[in-house]
Amino acid sequence: MAALSPPDLLLALRGARYGELQGFLDAVQARFERRGMGEDELRAAYAPFLRPDPALEKAFGGWRAAYPDSYPAYAAYATWLFGRAQALRGTLPVTQLSDLRWRGTLSCVQQLEGFAAHAVTLRAQAAGANPLSAWLLLGRARNLVGCTLSLEDLLQERYPEWFARPLAQNPASLELRQVMLDHLRPEWGGSDEQMFAFVRQQEAALGLGDAHRLWADYHARAAHHALHFLGDQVTGVERARLAAELYEPHAEILFVALTRAVGADAERQEALERFLSVAEHDPELRPSEPFFWALYNSDHFLAPLLGRVLPLLAGWAVAGQHAAAVALGRLSLLNRHWHLPDPAPLLRRAREEGSVEAAETLVALQEEGLGLRAAVTDNRFKRVDILQAAELGSAEMSWRVYRDFARYREQFGLSEADQLRSLLRSADAGHNEARYTLAQELRAGHLEVGEDGVLRSIDARPLQRSLDYARYLLERAATEEHAPSMRTLRLARDADWRSETARRRRPGAFWGA
C-alpha cells in the first residue's frame, strides 16, 4: 500500500481527487480489520482531517456526493467536525466559555454525532467490520459536552454504547480507554475517584507498556485539574512528575506545572528540554495549549533553546496547530530583541483556517511595531485585519468595529445592520463592555433580538425575552467583576425585569460618529 503523507491527503481533498482518497482509506480500513496495522496507524491515517479549516467543508461535501455509501468519506468528515468542535470548545469550563463558542461547539457536536453514527451504520454492513475510528469520534463528541457516567455505573461496568461495543471488538485498545478516561475528567463532570477506579479496572486487560501509559495519562489529567481548576500547585507538580516518570512526553505537563508554580528555572528548563527531545523525534506529537502559555512565561531562559523551539513551533503551525503560529507571534511581541523570523505568513494561514487568536495576533503585531515596521495606531490596512478578526468572532475586534463604525462604514460600505451585528457578536463572544451596552439598549427598548437571532433597531417597550437576555448579559459580565454591570444589577428592581412594569431606560444615543 502506497503511503500518503498528511499534505498529500489534504491536497487530494482540496483537489477533489476523491477516488485517490477513497482507495487509500479503504485499503487502510481493510488492513486494520485484517489486524495488519494497529490503532496508531489507523489514527494517523485520519489525523490530517482534524484541521479545522472552514474551506474544507465544500470538498467534504463533494466527496460524500461522489461516494454516498463511503465509510471513509463520512468518518473523515466527522473527524473534521471534531477538529472544529475542539477548536471552539477549547479547554475552559463551560461556565467560562462564551455563548458564541458554546453554541458553535454544540452545533458541531450534533452534526458530528450524526455523521459518525452514519459511518458506523455504513461499515457495520460489511463482513468483519470494525469501525473503530467512527466509534472513537462518538466518544470524543460526548466528551466535549460532559460526563454522563456515575461512579456506580463505572463500578458495575454500565458503559455507554460508544465504549462497550467497540471494546468488545478491540479488547486491548488503549485509545478507547484514553477516550473514556477523558470522559471521566473532573472538569467535565467526572471525578478523580472515577478516573482512578477506571484505570484500576482496566489495567489487567492491557500489556505492561499500555498500562503504564494509561496510569501516566491519569496522573497528567489529575495534574491539569489541580493546576487549572483547583489552584493546587503542589499537587499539580506532584502529579505531573508521576506522569512524566511513566511516559516521557508528559514532561510537557511537568514543564507547565513547574511554570505555573514558579518553580526554579533550572528545573523548568530541564522539563522543557526533556519534552523537546521527545518532540524532535516524533513529528506526530502535538503539545497542549497550556504548553504555549508556559513558553511565553519562560523567556528569561528560553533564548539559548530557540534553535530547538522555533523549528518545532513552525512545524506544528504548518501541520495545522494554530496555537503554535500564535505562539510565534506572541514570542515576537514579547521579545523584540530576539529578532525572530516574521510570524505573519503562518498567522495569516491560521487566520484563513478560522483561528480567531491568529487574527488578533496579526492586529497586535501592527500595533506594537516590529523591526523596521512602525507601530500602527489606525489606517486602512489595519482596519482590514481588524474586520477580518471581527468576522471570525473576535470579541475585542468586533467591539472596535462597533465603536469606530463610521470609518468601517466608509471604507467597506457597511450598513447599520453590520454595526448591530458587530455589537451582538462582541457581546456573544464575551466582551463585557459590549454585554453591558447591549443589555442597556435592550432595556431601553431601542433594540431587540429576533427569533432568527438577528439584532434590530426598534422604539417600543422592551419585550420579555429582551429583558431576560439583558439580565443574562449583565449577570455574565458581573461574574467577571465588571463594575457597571454589577452596579446596574444592584440598583435594578424586580419590576424592571418584567415587560409590563419595566421602566424604559435612556442610555444615550446609539449611533456613534
Question: What low-confidence regions span 5 or more consecutive residues with pLDDT below 50?
Answer: 508-513
| Overall average residue pLDDT | 92
Total DSSP E strands:
2
Give me the number of helical elements. 28
Rg estimate, integer Å: 25 Å
Could you spell the SSE succession in H and E letters? HHHHHHHHHHHHHHHHHHHHHHHHHHEEHH
What percentage of residues falls in helices of 4 or more residues?
Answer: 55-70%
Span of the ends, CA to CA:
64 Å
Q: Which structural class should the secondary elements be placed in?
A: mainly alpha
Beta-strand percent range: under 5%
The major sheet is characterized as:
2 strands, antiparallel
Describe the strand arrangement of the main beta sheet, using strand numbers. 1-2
Spatial shape: globular
Name its key features.
single chain; 513 residues; mainly alpha; two-stranded antiparallel sheet; 28 helices; 1% strand; disordered C terminus
Would you mind describing this structure in some detail?
This is DUF4034 domain-containing protein. There is one protein chain. Among the domains are: 145 residues, no CATH class; 91 residues; 103 residues. Helices cover 67% and strands 1% of the residues. It is built from 28 helices and two strands. Strands 1-2 form a two-stranded antiparallel sheet. A hairpin with a 5-residue loop joins strand 1 and strand 2. The protein is globular, with a radius of gyration of 25 Å. The C terminus is likely disordered.
Write the layout of secondary structure elements.
Elements: H1 6-14, H2 18-33, H3 39-46, H4 56-66, H5 71-89, H6 99-124, H7 132-145, H8 151-155, H9 161-169, H10 174-183, H11 192-202, H12 208-230, H13 233-246, H14 251-260, H15 265-280, H16 289-296, H17 299-302, H18 306-318, H19 322-334, H20 344-352, H21 356-368, H22 380-392, H23 395-403, H24 405-412, H25 416-428, H26 432-444, E1 447-449, E2 455-457, H27 464-479, H28 483-491
Helix pairs in contact: 2-3, 4-5, 5-6, 5-7, 6-7, 7-10, 10-12, 11-12, 12-13, 13-14, 14-15, 14-16, 16-19, 18-19, 19-20, 19-21, 20-21, 21-22, 22-23, 23-25, 25-26, 26-27, 27-28
